[in-house]
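USER:
Make up one protein:

ASSISTANT:
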Amino acid sequence: MNPVTITEAAQKLPDLIDAALRGEEVTITKNGSVVKLIPATTVKRYPAKAGSAKGQVWMSDDFDEPLEEFKDYM
């Protein structure tokens, strides 16, 4: 698709959106600047499930002990 000016885009926005959704590259220009109109992808998120990582995480028994290098500062 040929570039359209911002004025043309304002008048034909629904058509330009349909074109972008069909996979066409829609380029809009304004005072020498260029933008592309592309469809956004959606990320499917699943609700967190308590306990779903059980047995996959390990923590050392001395996890909260001071590091050897910092004992002089304690």
About this structure: The chain is about 20% helix and 15% strand. Strands lie at 4-5, 26-30, 33-37. The domain at 1-38 is CATH 3.40.1620.10 (YefM-like fold).
